[in-house]
């Protein structure tokens, strides 16, 4: 099991990477420092690669026997994911979640780090580089937001009393196939205010700090995008399952519904039942 001291040491490494590699390049990137991966929405920058190298080099010094999985290195070597379920200790890093925002000068991005043993996430950190604040959790010990060095407990359920049409939510339905997009539009008409940040770090932060009632993620649900966020969500008392009720697993594809309560989860999931 990981300790609170270790969690904050890891968060400090992420914060150092933000101070040294991420923020100095923010809104300073040149065209040659931004590349496309799968399409023009899926970007990687020199800051992503530099921050990943910064963090992973420090992790390997502290935990030489651990499995290290970084989003950018996995893109070049997908086989490293095959070891995740069996590794005694692993770290899964997204050096800049929300690279599109980062590359376009928007503040909606974050650093995400999950700590796992044999495929089970036992610790999670979501750092907001612009402020230096971060969400963190250890399995079985609750979830917290550290602001200016002070931990504040995270507790889900702020919007439970509101009707579905009065809630705020995040729903990424703009990247689906035509048939799914039509269903998304029909479902969206039964919801309240909908936002789509296309940034898991930002949306997990909004859910776990009580700003939104639920979030729907979809398509390929990578472990570096969801490992830390799901643990923090569950430790805060919220509920996360695939829309069909099954449990999340790394690299699964589909709709992941994360809601502030079981009641809200059931209410939203019912909208997708035909």
UniProtKB/TrEMBL annotation:
PROSITE patterns: IMP_1 (PS00629)
Record keywords: Hydrolase, Magnesium, Metal-binding
Residues holding Mg(2+): 71, 94, 96-97, 225
GO BP, one annotated term: signal transduction
The keyword Transcription is assigned to this record: no
Pfam families on file: Inositol_P
Source domain of life: Bacteria
Listed Gene3D superfamilies: 3.40.190.80, Fructose-1,6-Bisphosphatase, subunit A, domain 1
Any one GO MF annotation of this record: inositol monophosphate 1-phosphatase activity
InterPro entries, A to Z: Inositol_monoP_metal-BS, Inositol_monophosphatase-like
Names of the cofactor(s): Mg(2+)
Protein family according to the UniProt entry: Belongs to the inositol monophosphatase superfamily.
Record-given protein name: Inositol monophosphatase
Organism from which the protein derives: Alteromonas confluentis
């Amino acid at each position: 099991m990981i300790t609170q001291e270790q969690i904050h040491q890891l968060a400090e490494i992420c914060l150092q990477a933000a101070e040294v590699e991420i923020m100095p390049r923010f809104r300073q990137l040149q065209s040659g420092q931004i590349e496309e991966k799968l399409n023009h929405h899926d970007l990687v920058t020199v800051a992503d690669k530099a921050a990943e190298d910064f963090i992973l080099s420090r992790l390997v010094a502290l935990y030489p026997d651990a499995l290290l999985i970084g989003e950018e290195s996995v893109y070049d070597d997908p086989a490293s994911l095959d070891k995740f379920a069996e590794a005694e200790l692993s770290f899964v890093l997204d050096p800049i979640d929300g690279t599109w925002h980062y590359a376009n000068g928007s503040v909606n991005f974050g650093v995400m780090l999950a700590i796992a043993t044999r495929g089970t996430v036992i610790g999670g950190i979501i750092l907001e580089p612009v402020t230096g604040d971060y969400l963190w959790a250890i399995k079985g010990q609750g979830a917290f937001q550290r602001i200016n060095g002070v931990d504040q407990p995270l507790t889900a359920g702020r919007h439970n009393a509101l009707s579905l049409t009065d809630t705020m939510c995040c729903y990424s339905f703009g990247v689906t196939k035509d048939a799914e997009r039509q269903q998304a539009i029909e479902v969206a008409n039964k919801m309240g205010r909908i936002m789509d940040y296309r940034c898991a770090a930002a949306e997990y932060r909004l859910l776990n700090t009580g700003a939104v009632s639920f979030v729907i993620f979809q398509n390929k649900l990578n472990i570096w995008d969801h490992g830390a966020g799901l643990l923090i969500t569950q430790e805060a008392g919220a509920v996360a399952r695939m829309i069909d009720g099954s449990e999340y697993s790394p690299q699964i594809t589909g709709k992941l519904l994360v809601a502030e309560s079981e009641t809200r989860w059931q209410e939203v999931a019912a909208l997708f039942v035909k």
